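pasting for the record
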Amino acid sequence: MPERYTLPIDDERTILREGVVRALRAVPMHFMSTINLEGLSAIDLFAMNTLLGGAIEDQTVATLNATRAIWDPEGRWADCEFKRYAESFPDVRLERNDGSTPLIGIELKGWYLLAKEEMPSFRFRASANAMTIWDLIAVFPWSLSNVISGTPILESPYIEQAKYAADLRTYYWEHRSPSARPVEHPDTHPYPDAGSSYSDIVHDDRGGNFGRIARVHGLMDDWVEDTMKTNLAGIEARWWVRFLKLFDERGDEETIRAKFGRLAQSIGHSSEWTEEVVQHVIRLMEM
């Protein structure tokens, strides 16, 4: 079973990484977006991660650079800044201005909380050989300030050692069944050149599921479950998703109302929701 890699205490990147982790956790408090959405169909909300994911990731990188005082309180890294390379791995790199090897890489992902899957759906296929022990994977859940409209807001991120996450993902894949075939690793190195092969290779993935680390037991499943309980206008995100799904399925009004009745009943039995909250959701349905 893979374990996290120990970071050497005498390497300057170890201390720097600690500051970067603190900055990542502080990003939601400092995040500001110029995006403002109004008038969307509720059903179209499911596609928001595709529509806005890249823009939010860009703005997250800008926030990291704006919070330099957190990750570089003594000004030791004044010649460094975070840069995003959308078509490379990792897609965010802390680099010196002289273009030398990046100090730390972050594979940055956004997760729209009202996506249908109720979990992050991105694929993390990069080989463990394509990252250093200091590199990170960071996943930022986001939603809109008024739930179905407004500006993006971020929630507390998932942060993990990227190399460990890649190892555990591969271990999970190779042990998922007795007939599972070994994963092949490309000839790569940390911070591979754009266009080069850095993803692990699998030959029995007809469903395209390799790399879906949200499904890897013991990696981020507890965090996903907790995050889906995030309150959006007083209602947990998981219930918003299930409510919106009612209108994304085929069915007449009577069928939808029956399904909503069962959903409202399950909410009342499994949470501290009041009748007032349930009626509020009913009024939204009437709109």
